[in-house]
Amino acid sequence: MLGDINADLVGRVKSWPEPGQECLAERLELHCGGVGANCALALRRWDVAVQLVGCVGKDHFGGFLLETLGAYKVNVRSVRRTGKAMTGMLYINVTPDGQRTFFGSRGANQLVGRLGQNESNLLARARAASLMGYSFMDDGGEAAAQQIIAAVHRKNGWVSLDAGMEPCKKIAGKILRVARTADLFFVSSEEATLLTGLRRPEKAFLSLLNLAIPEVVMKLGKRGCLIFDEGTLRQVPSFPVRAVDSTGAGDAFTAAFLQGRLRGWHVSEAALAANAAGAAAVSVVGAGERLPTLRQIARVLRAHRLKKPWEVVRLGVLRHLSRRNRRKT
User: Fold this and answer.
1) pTM for the whole thing?
2) In the predicted model, is pLDDT for residue 315 greater than 90?
3) What is the CATH number of the domain that holds 138?
4) Structural domain includes residue 165
């Protein structure tokens, strides 16, 4: 997995400040964050082995992030440390409706370079790779990503790409070119609009498929997601929850979908599990190590019966989770 690793400083405030106004949070929380770290930690919740590729600074925050990732058994041997930049850091301002606004810098994430021999040897055993659009904003990150794509495809593995809002704004053409070489493309409805110019999610989804992107999964937030299943565009239902912080919800979604596909689940099962994981994620403050456990995801699934045909899918996902829990015990 290649993606950003950040220190997230989260502050919950009562309202969005006016320009020049002081805005004090009652408390601040420090968490592991960044799309790469979040997705890696979420995959570990599903007991998927993860090797993370990235870069952090030679500072206290870099040490904190590596220690946190290691505690959850994320393989961080391919995470480099640099003295040329600080560890990526974001202040995340969270309002009572759960909406979050980011301030900060990618920092050392911009200094990821080509993979060395040790990293290539580890990569040779990978069944799949997950890439994020942010990596393609820098020459070094793009070089590493292209190495990963080539290595995984040589082993007949598959590659997923998660678009990202900023890359879609700044390097839309490159994101579309890379998406054609991936096997699975995650994109939000807002990102799809930036990439295609089409506002209706359904039209934007079909436009992406028409660009020869092999498989698209579109995140719709509170409205669930869109998938293409057996020749039909389907909207997968969401799970209503009380949102307190949407940070990391998309990463929890991506990880849940990926683990389902790795384990041979049907696309509808993987998508419904992903919606449940995203819903569970918005119910807690912070991402990273705070992302939902399988028990929390199962709780969301059990709390909401669905209309046909999705009720059958929901019960199927719960059976998958039940079998995983039995193996653990």
Assistant:
1) 0.92
2) yes
3) 3.40.1190.20
4) yes
